[in-house]
């Protein structure tokens, strides 16, 4: 098969995959801007007069905004603390000699293997005992349990791709190991840190089960709050679409801001 034909077929398949991923998001945004009549019209309307009524209904009582900022706060704090703990831990696994560190790394990874539905009851009982139910601290801690393992393994692979000679050169110039880590290794690891942070934030932002069980009206997150638009009268699809659009917006903005680091961080960490 000629090279040009292969390139054309590849481009067609690539654009088809992009369309498959983008179309649900586009449909969600379009539905949020439609009236109920337009949303349920057959055949579907792609040309219509947009309305912001659905967004007004979502924001009119202020409760969804409260839950929305809960998600922002919990997502940011869980990502920040996971990075503060996971990055030094990954560095220690790579640079310091220790017994059974491969076993330890695998044990950390194994914490991701248990299905959330299996461990939610023990977590609930422990949180109830320590008065952590319906608290921001409790939700941050539970999100860190699955963010830490991801960050540790991703950054561990990334640190292995950074030559130790660069740190040794800095130490010869008189800096301590800690300062070499801060001034040399961390800047070189910026793409990996960016990739780990976006995935950690997405996992925390999109999480539903733990937030549903372990929170109440005080610390409920936006993903759980969307279910409030499902009432005994029926599903208010316009408000659901508007709330869903608001929920995916921060992740898209965050991803766009660090996209130049994202691919580099995902690829360089896999090469020694």
UniProtKB/TrEMBL annotation:
PROSITE patterns assigned to the protein according to its UniProt record, in alphabetical order: ABC_TM1
Keyword Membrane recorded: yes
Swiss-Prot/TrEMBL keywords: Cell membrane, Membrane, Transmembrane, Transmembrane helix, Transport
Cleavable signal peptide: none
Ranges for domain ABC transmembrane type-1: 68-258
Gene Ontology terms: biological process: transmembrane transport
Name of protein: ABC transporter permease subunit
Species annotation: Paenibacillus validus
Lineage: Bacteria, Bacillati, Bacillota, Bacilli, Bacillales
């Amino acid at each position: 098969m000629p090279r040009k034909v292969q390139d054309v077929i590849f481009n067609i398949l690539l654009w088809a995959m992009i369309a498959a991923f983008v179309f649900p998001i586009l449909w969600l945004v379009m539905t949020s801007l439609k009236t109920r009549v337009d949303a349920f019209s057959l055949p579907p309307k792609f040309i219509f007069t947009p309305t912001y009524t659905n967004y007004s209904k979502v924001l009119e009582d202020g409760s969804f905004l409260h839950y929305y900022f809960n998600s922002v706060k919990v997502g940011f704090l869980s990502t920040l603390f996971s990075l503060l703990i996971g990055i030094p831990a990954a560095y220690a696994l790579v640079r310091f000699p220790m017994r059974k560190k491969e076993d330890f790394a695998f044990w950390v990874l194994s914490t991701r293997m248990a299905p959330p539905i299996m461990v939610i009851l023990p977590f609930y009982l422990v949180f109830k005992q320590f008065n952590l139910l319906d608290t921001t601290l409790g939700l941050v801690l539970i999100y860190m349990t699955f963010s830490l393992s991801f960050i540790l393994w991703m950054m561990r692979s990334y640190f292995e791709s950074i030559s130790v000679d660069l740190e040794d050169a800095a130490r010869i110039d008189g800096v301590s190991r800690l300062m070499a880590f801060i001034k040399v290794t961390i800047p070189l690891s910026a793409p990996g840190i960016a990739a780990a942070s976006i995935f950690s934030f997405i996992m925390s932002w999109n999480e539903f089960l733990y937030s549903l069980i372990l929170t109440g009206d005080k610390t409920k997150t936006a993903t759980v709050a969307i279910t409030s638009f499902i009432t005994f009268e029926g599903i208010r699809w316009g408000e659901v679409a508007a709330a869903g659009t608001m929920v995916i917006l921060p992740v898209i903005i965050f991803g766009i801001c660090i996209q130049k680091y994202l691919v580099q961080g995902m690829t360089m960490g896999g090469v020694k």
